[in-house]
Structures are given as structure tokens and as C-alpha cells.
Design a protein that fits this description.
single chain, 327 residues, mainly alpha, 12 helices, 2 strands, 2% strand
Length: 327
């Protein structure tokens, strides 16, 4: 526990220090986020630096590598997948900046990469004997055998894209993700005590929990730069990394089924877009004033800070409802 708290603090400080040090450099290089023209409230944000995800990813992974004593293949795989998604997000952000519009990589290019990585990670998980799932709100587990690969691939793709869609308001995705990483760290630690080495050895449990804590700390430091009004955006560099890290931590620890619960705000973003697009194609009318749904609330007059707080509140309540089962 002491190590986790220390890592949380150090990761947040490294992220903040790196962010403050390199923010002027990003401004000088004119690495500025193109703003969606149809979001009137965001016109004043034009010119805000992006790619801030680099700060908390570097802070989290650097801290983890220093303090992790239980070298585990699962935590190493999580880092590899996170960095892979970060590279794709970085390329996407770079193209947006270079061509000065809000479209980088095509949907097909992003999806192709996500499918490839998801299949590799899911198959590796299955071959490592991780074909079980913890059932939410209980201490029971089920084994899906090879079918777990199909489920995990879907969860990877859904999570990464949902996190990406949630990154639309200052501090929204950062605050929600911070809570989810803390929840995963606590849940994995409690499951380690409850199940021993029945499914995963203690070293792997400890490494995954510590890595999740480091990501949470990194986001805490980043929030000081990202809350309204944001000094920097995380960009796809950050949101794709977060989606990859959260989905990998959940899948490799057997907590795949927890994502739709603790990540309900992510799912809501995706579902609102799907509903909006499908309904508009059929009727030429809109269900929401704007999608994802956080923009709908914004159009209703709610401040970005209030929306971020509401999302965080929901995430905390749902996370605690799962954690309490293991206490």
C-alpha cells in the first residue's frame, strides 16, 4: 500500500513538472488543436496545445518502471499496448496539426490497427490461461474458454473508441479515467487477497495494480493543466492511450465485464452517437441537440466543469458499488 501511494504521488508530480516544463515548448512549435467548427462554445479554445497525453503516459510508465519489483509479463504487455495506441494517437494528432483540420487518420486506418492489436492481446491473454471472467457485484467467476477472445476483442475496440469520444470537454475524460484507474487498482488488489493465486500469481496482480495506480497519479497531475479552461488537451495521443490501458488492465486481470459498469460514461458517449446517427439517417431529425451526449448537456446550458463533476460522481458511485463486494 505504501508503494502504491508513493507511486501515485510521484507519478502525478512527474506529469505536472514535465507538463509545465514542455507546455511553452509545445506552444512555440505551434502544436495546436484544430477545434470542431460546429461546437460554438469551443471557438475560444482555438490554438490550445494538444498531445498532452504524452505527459501522463511518460509520468506513469517512468514511475512504474522505477518502483515495480514484481516483473510481470501482463504489466509489460499492458505498457506495450498502451504505447502502441499512443503512437497511433500521436500520428492522428500530428496529421490534424499539419493539415490544420480536425480529421487525422481515417476511420478505417484507426479501426484496422485496433482490430489487430485487440486480437493479439486477447489471444495472448487466452494462451496464458486467462479465459475466466470475474462476475460484477459478486465473488464468482466463469470460464468462457476460447470464446473469451471474441468478447475481449469487442471490449478493446468498444472501450478505446468510447474513451476517445468522451474526450470532448475540459477535464472530462481525465477525471473519469482517473477514478477508473483507482478503482481497477483497488479491485485487482482485493481480488488478489480473495483468490490468492487461483487465477493469476501474486506478482502479476501486484504489478497490474501498481501500474493502474501510476496511471491514476499521472492523470491527477495532468488535471491541473486540463481542467476548465484547459491549458492543454490530451489529444488522441492521450485518449487512445487511456482506452488501451484501461481495456488491457481489465482484460488481463479478468475484469472485462467491469468496463461497461465503471466505464458507463464512456459507453454513454458511444451509444449517444450511434443513436443520433441512426435516427438522423432514418428521420432527418436529431434525438440530442448534439452528440456525444456531453455536448447535448453543454447546449442545454450546463458548464463543462459541472458536466465533468456529474460524470465523475456517477463513476465513483458505480466503482464503490463493485469494490464493496470484496471488502
Amino acid at each position: 500500500m505504501k508503494t502504491q501511494i508513493l507511486c501515485f504521488i510521484i507519478s502525478s508530480l512527474i506529469t505536472l513538472i514535465v507538463g509545465l516544463a514542455f507546455l511553452p515548448f509545445l506552444k512555440k512549435l505551434k502544436l495546436k488543436q484544430p477545434i470542431l467548427k460546429y461546437v460554438d462554445e469551443h471557438k475560444s479554445k482555438s490554438g490550445t496545445p494538444t498531445m498532452g497525453g504524452l505527459f501522463f503516459i511518460v509520468g506513469a510508465i517512468f514511475t512504474f518502471l522505477i518502483f515495480n519489483k514484481d516483473s510481470g509479463k501482463l504489466s509489460n504487455l499492458t505498457i506495450a499496448i498502451t504505447l502502441g495506441f499512443m503512437v497511433v494517437g500521436f500520428i492522428d494528432d500530428f496529421l490534424k496539426i499539419k493539415y490544420k483540420h480536425n480529421e487525422g487518420l481515417s476511420v478505417v486506418q484507426k479501426l484496422l490497427f485496433q482490430v489487430i492489436v485487440s486480437i493479439i492481446a486477447s489471444y495472448f491473454s487466452y494462451r496464458s490461461g486467462l479465459d475466466f471472467l470475474y462476475l460484477p457485484f459478486s465473488k464468482k467467476t466463469i470460464s468462457l474458454g476460447a470464446y473469451v477472445v471474441i468478447l475481449n476483442v469487442f471490449v478493446f475496440i468498444a472501450t478505446v473508441n468510447s474513451v476517445n469520444l468522451t474526450d470532448g470537454l475540459d477535464g472530462l475524460c481525465s477525471s473519469v479515467s482517473l477514478i477508473i484507474f483507482i478503482a481497477l487498482a483497488v479491485i485487482i488488489s482485493l481480488q488478489s487477497r480473495a483468490y490468492g493465486e487461483r487465477y493469476i500469481n501474486q506478482g502479476e496482480y501486484s504489478s497490474l495494480a501498481l501500474l493502474s495506480t501510476c496511471f491514476a497519479g499521472g492523470l491527477l497531475g495532468f488535471l491541473l493543466l486540463n481542467t476548465n479552461r484547459a491549458s492543454i488537451f490530451m489529444g488522441d495521443t492521450g485518449s487512445l492511450s487511456l482506452g488501451g490501458a484501461i481495456s488491457t488492465l481489465a482484460v488481463l486481470s479478468g475484469n472485462t465485464l467491469l468496463i461497461p459498469i465503471v466505464g458507463i460514461c464512456y459507453i454513454t458517449s458511444s451509444v449517444s452517437v450511434i443513436i443520433q446517427v441512426a435516427y438522423y439517417k432514418k428521420t432527418k431529425k436529431r434525438v440530442f441537440l448534439m452528440a456525444p451526449i456531453h455536448h447535448h448537456f453543454q447546449e442545454k446550458g450546463y458548464s463543462e466543469s459541472k458536466i465533468a463533476y456529474a460524470y465523475s460522481f456517477i463513476t465513483i458511485i458505480l466503482s464503490l458499488s463493485i469494490i464493496i463486494v470484496f471488502m
